[in-house]
Design brief:
Order of helices and strands: EEEEE
Strand content: 25-35%
Shape: elongated
Radius of gyration: 18 Å
Number of strands: 5
Helix content: under 10%
Largest sheet: 5 strands, mixed
Oligomer: single chain
Length: 100
């Protein structure tokens, strides 16, 4: 029989550090909040061993219909906290909007 699969968070994955990239022992984990879009309300704890949070996170939803891509931009807060805000959608011109 197959074993049940468990969803893995970023903080659950063991990092492999390259020589010279060791993080300080006193580094703190970062709390990241998501605002807007499909990840609205999500709270992630990024382990200090993973380094600083990325400036942009891309979320791709592939289920039940067309692919939906959402991008979140990091807005750092004091301390070890940051908020990812949903990036406003960029409207792509349709064929009807293009002048002949």
């Amino acid at each position: 029989m197959s074993a049940a699969r468990r969803e893995t968070d970023l903080s659950d994955v063991e990092a492999v550090e390259a020589p010279g990239e060791a993080r300080p022992e006193d580094a703190e984990d970062t709390v990241l909040l998501f605002v807007g879009g499909p990840l609205d309300g999500r709270v992630e704890v990024r382990a200090a061993r993973h380094g600083d949070p990325l400036p942009t996170v891309t979320h791709v939803h592939l289920h039940d219909g067309p692919k939906v891509v959402s991008r979140y931009d990091l807005h750092p807060l004091p301390g070890q906290t940051g908020v990812y805000h949903l990036r406003p959608a960029v409207r792509q011109p349709s064929r009807d909007d293009v002048a002949d």
